[in-house]
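Lecture notes, continued. The same structure-token format from the folding unit now serves as the input rather than the output. Read the line below as a description of shape only.
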């Protein structure tokens, strides 16, 4: 049985400082100190390749794709920006530099000054390279450098890794950046502290969420409305292998027991092992449905282990008639703030 989680208005100063520090230590401060700006679903691309050429066309084919949100939604709105407009786009959330260094222009001449030590080392090698960085010009910003000496270099670079892996890598970085900027409009400080004190883990939450728990079932549920968002957290006191066969029954039980017979649409499901906070995790991307109420929506989930305890985090969205991708990215970003305490 679920019971409400009460926000603790009083807690020890030491514990409050500990949790606040734990949740924000990854938030670096850079040139754009207030954080990256603009919609998370937009990407500014600076390139000196012809806009209708093969390099740009191939890039767009990889990064401008549709995702199933119960109906297709475009992954990103990609804006091909002339480099003389760079100052306007300097602090946007997502940017790509697709650069042919064999062309003598302002973009190619300026690019080396944008690279960190690792990027400069790659440039000196003279081989085509990709370099994905966070917080380039602003906190929470994602910047992807795709650099070669010729157009053929760039074609090779875009072809040497599968489109799916390139998409996952960029998406993970975008979600990670969002986890640093999404709280600018407000954050619930007390609910995460209550959870940390009771259960030994916590997440950051925007304002508007409320929580319920089943302590005996090792389960916590966070809800928010307009749009409908759910975060389910379940844990077991053992190490569960990062295999779908081990976790699928757990996922099925949690959704049915605590979400009134929700289930996963297996025909739309993708699962894969990924990097979650520097450690291996199993990730789900798919659609949840509920035949009882004839509703559904997108979800993302992670399973992972921390200090001998295994966790399952499920982020769900219900937003009929409206775009769902921005909200499921928000849920993914919230899950990426997870921290074990103690």
């Amino acid at each position: 049985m679920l019971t409400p989680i009460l926000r603790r208005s009083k807690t020890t100063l030491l514990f409050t400082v500990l949790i606040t520090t734990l949740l924000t230590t990854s938030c670096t401060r850079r040139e754009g100190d207030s954080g990256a700006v603009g919609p998370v679903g937009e990407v500014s691309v600076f390139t000196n390749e012809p806009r209708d050429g093969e390099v740009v066309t191939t890039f767009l084919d990889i990064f401008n794709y549709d995702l199933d949100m119960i109906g297709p939604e475009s992954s990103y709105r990609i804006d091909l920006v002339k480099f003389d407009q760079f100052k306007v786009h300097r602090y946007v959330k997502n940017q790509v530099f697709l650069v042919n260094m064999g062309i003598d222009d302002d973009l190619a001449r300026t690019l080396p000054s944008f690279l960190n030590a690792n990027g400069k080392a790659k440039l000196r090698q003279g081989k085509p390279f990709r370099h994905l960085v966070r917080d380039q010009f602003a906190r929470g910003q994602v910047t992807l450098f795709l650099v070669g000496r010729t157009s053929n270099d760039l074609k090779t670079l875009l072809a040497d890794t599968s489109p799916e892996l390139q998409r996952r890598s960029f998406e993970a970085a975008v979600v990670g950046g969002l986890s640093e900027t999404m709280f600018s409009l407000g954050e619930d400080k007390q609910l995460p502290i209550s959870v940390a004190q009771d259960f030994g883990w916590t997440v950051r939450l925007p304002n508007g969420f409320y929580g319920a728990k089943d302590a005996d079932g090792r389960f916590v549920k966070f809800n928010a409305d307009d749009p409908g968002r759910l975060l389910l957290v379940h844990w077991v006191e053992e190490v569960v292998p990062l295999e779908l066969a081990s976790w699928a029954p757990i996922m099925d039980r949690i959704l049915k027991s605590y979400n009134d017979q929700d289930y996963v649409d297996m025909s739309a499901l993708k699962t894969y092992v990924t990097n979650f906070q520097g450690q291996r995790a199993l990730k789900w991307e798919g659609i949840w449905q509920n035949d009882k109420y004839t509703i559904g929506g997108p979800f993302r989930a992670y399973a992972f282990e921390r200090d001998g305890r295994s966790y399952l985090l499920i982020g769900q969205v219900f937003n009929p008639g409206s775009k769902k991708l921005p909200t499921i990215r928000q849920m993914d970003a919230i899950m990426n703030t997870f921290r074990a305490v103690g």
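Point for the exam: Confidence is low (pLDDT under 50) at residues 26-30.
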